[in-house]
Amino acid sequence: MDEDTYTHLLSLVSARIQKCDTQLRKAITAHERLTATLRFLATGRNYTDLKFTCGISQPSLSIIIPETCEAICSVLLKDVIKFPKTTEEWASVASLYEDRWNFPNCLGSIDGKHVRITPPKNSGAFYRNYKGYDSLVLLAVVDADYKFLMVDFGTNGRVSDGGVIENTKFYKKLIDGKLNLPNCRRVGNRDLKYVFVGDEAFALKSNFMKPFNVRELSTEKRIYNYRLSRARRVVENVFDLDVSIYLEMLSIQRILKTEQHEQDWWQMTPTSPIYNQDQIEILQLKQKKLETILFNTSTTKVLFIFKISLPDYQLISK
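Now predict its structure.
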């Protein structure tokens, strides 16, 4: 994160996280609170490890990080995730989908992402998903421009995507007709409704489309599945793109950390370092670029929402 972005974020959250000094001790500053939180979000390190680099005790971190995450959500959420509220805004989303992905009247693609966790003690298989590990589900609605329109996080991984969406306010308003969706539009010689698209895990509705069963495909159904897949894969691409950026950044961090150890050892022994100074500078520049991209993508800003540290379990960066 560059200095200007950090300063701007600090100015937004300072009033919410700054504490008053007492006669016994000085309060931890807003700068220290935000720095510790951003380091936690960027590295995924636990509180025990983080206390050595931040100089803040583990009990304090367990209070500071959730409070700071909530403050970040409060000041950024309205600007980061803009849910369409008018018919014109929904029509604009559908128009971009048709131009870019050749699927008319599409208002967004929906899918879930399993976030691996360390579950609470004695939770049994409550968080165990069909892939065989414990997780929480991040459900998202994404437009054609790879931007989030709606995010829901917190349902245990044992529940399918279809069950997750049924517990959201978005789905209830969709069923009740309270989303101000546009009316039917003439496409070719038919009047077609505006719809959302998803995979086989979701229930078929008049305003929610899913692919046909692969065992019952005619030529027309195969073409429909292809078109729907093009529109639906946007939400999957959003998850994959930001995960790959995040993993690449972590890889660079590990290389730089390893190289620092090699440089320290090289000062005491004649062994040559793995990377020369020019290569290290290139890696450092690439790391800064990835951090900027990662912070400015809508998916990573959503990390501020679903990385709020809940007391019973810990998210794992994998």
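Confidence is low (pLDDT under 50) at residues 259-274, 294-318.
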